[in-house]
Protein 1
Amino acid sequence: MKLEDQLRFLGFKSLPHYLKSKHWRHFKRLYKTSGLRQACAHCGFCQFQLRHLSHERLGAELLTDVLPLCNHCQFRLNQYLKKHPFACLGDTLQILRDLGDVVQPEPESPSGEYMSDEEVKARLLELIAQQKKVAKNSILP
Ligand SMILES: [Zn+2]
């Protein structure tokens, strides 16, 4: 069955609609407490979403039907799938490996600009100075 037909059969308009369902929220909770990897399976980034490796059991997924992926890796995977519509979702990890390593964006400075190395150093020194001040004023023995 095609994905669209499966979704319609389950009463959903689209995959995003399905991903907002009570069932999916419950499944995500189940995954969180499963002891399975809680970081992007490709790059290890701590913020991730669950990505289907198969839509075969949509509505009754097994925990092994999904893979945790960060936004960036999902984006790269989607770009690839656009160009290779017949790629097998089960090969997701191999596809990402073939695409190579991911460089996660640098943390943003308060101004929204990326910080240079010097700015990062200056910020760290500032934080250390603040901490020392706190330690000096501490009421702990
Ligand atoms: Zn990633």
Protein 2
Amino acid sequence: MLIFNKTQERFLPYLTSRQVDQLPEKDKAVVILPVASIEQHGPHLPVFTDSIIVQEVLERALGNLPDDFPAWVLPIQSYGKSNEHTGFPGTFTLTSETFIKVLKEIGANVARNGFKRFVFINGHGGNTEIIDFVIRDIRQQTDLMVFALHVGLRVGVPTGGLSEAEMTYGIHAGDVETSMLLKCSPEYVKPEWAPNGLPSHLQGMKTPPFMGALNYAWLTRDIAPIGVLGNATTADPERGEKYLSNAASEVAGLLIKVKEFEFEKWQA
Ligand SMILES: [Zn+2]
């Protein structure tokens, strides 16, 4: 899981120094940093869930691209910002300050190696705000073209087969993530421990209160004492397959756009 099985030829650290130096099409090449988390995902999913999902989606996306597509993948930055899950066993988080520094310094290295296009593919909601401001800082400091793909949040948003309550509140270790893990890494799932973590006291509201007009800081223990937001008991690997493959084809399409991106020509 820690390395790319299906896309080894695109794993940048397998190249030699000379190969990195002499890569063709360096101005078009897309350097990709998967970013995720190591954090509690309820009693039933591994703490590596976000990391597994983002690597699975990326592997599939790269498999959808032509063999000669110039994409180079860096080792996943699994340690993310997960302080919302502090207090639950299995959570390993960086502080915001450290996480920001690590991302910026990896960006500086991408630029120093002569690349022009750098993409974060993020699998953890808690990293989103930081990545969105860091990409601007990296652009300003290095002149790289920098992009962020937030899988499951803005890219490959799962639809189909989910109740309205799940669509509204199923943001962590619920039906969607459990379905995807049951498909791609079932050996790490404990279905017999899967809970229904829909917050009954909040249901009936179309917008979760923490996404409303008064944005308040929350920790997982404030809103979901069992660590799950969503109903994991309804998970289904067939839907998991659909969510993964839809996300992969959307990511593949966006990577093609990244390769061709020029500010003056860009049309979203
Ligand atoms: Zn997750």
Protein 3
Amino acid sequence: MSQTIIPVETEHHDEKAGDRLCMSRRQFLLTGGATVALVSLGALPGSAEAAQALKASYPRQRIGSLAALKKGVPLPFNYPYSDVRNILVKLGVEAGGGAGPQKDIVAFNQQCTHMGGPLDGTYKDKYQALGPCPLHLTTFDLTHHGMVISGQATDSLPQIVLEIQGDDIYAVGVMGLVYGYSAMTTQRKA
Ligand code: FES
């Protein structure tokens, strides 16, 4: 399947094949001093389906190390802002957008895309899933760019774009809109 990529104009991040990922059906951006790109995505693992997504790049931030990351044990971190909660997790299976030698290291926002329910502490390593959300039970598949498995939400979880340099793991961007942020702005909804 052919793909068209609009180059990312950023000094912080070079587009790589493994970074083409994720989707928000609302196709909004989480931006703010960020460089924005519209990317025609590659297919998900095992799927021929392609999707469009908007991607926001941010100054990269070290969020962990390969040596310290244990399979199935999520590490919380905030990115790109101090109030945006995410997890970094080694799934143990190859994942869409996965980083690292096994392409199994991913990071996702922890606020449910339905109404912002807290997904903190809900990672299920048996299923590589986040959820169910305590409000309306949505569960998200972390092997497939945070797609909804079941529940009220319709949008995938925002996926944090990762880069590996040596033993260090960096966050370099966000795919999708973090709940509570308006499109194309850093401001929370009124
Ligand atoms: S807020 Fe998570 S399912 Fe409604």
Protein 4
Amino acid sequence: MNESHKYKLVFFHLPKNAGVSVRRAIGIDRKSHKFPFTNVSVALGIDVKANTLDSIYESYHKFAIVRNPYERMVSLYNFRKQGNDLYDYANLKESDFKSKEELQNSPNIEYWKKLQDIYNTGDIFAILKQRCGNCAAFNITDKMRDCIKKGIGDEAPAEPIIKVGEIGYCRFLKFKCAAARTCQAWVSGGPIKD
Ligand code: SF4
């Protein structure tokens, strides 16, 4: 899936580490490789292994690239500005909070302020839109939802719970989660869907 036959390399693409340029440089052709994710950088090491022929995985060199963390954040900032993906999906609409004054009365305001500090932004509405539902780790494919349904079993009506709660699976933290939630590991570019 992430292999370069030209250089006999298997590449682990970490988000915002110049992975697209690396892929181009070593000639990874996405079209000719089986690739189950819309966003290549959410593939974990285990996914790369599972989607690479054993003979290739064993014989090719394997590598990843990391960059200076400050440069990485600049890259993330530019990426978000370009794609404006923070605004593609959010459970909350701006109209849910008609004003900053109304927001101040939200029971969770301290939590959101803390996140605002962490992301160092004055725009609390942008922070409010960073949800599991648009996180690159959030998997809502049919296959994953079928698996969640089986996990719920007969204990509760699985279908409506998944639908109403917009339930998916967090590939980073490895648990079942709802679209409206968030955490400090949030990454833009999601969700993973069919
Ligand atoms: S729990 Fe965090 S990392 Fe996982 S999907 Fe939600 S925001 Fe993303």
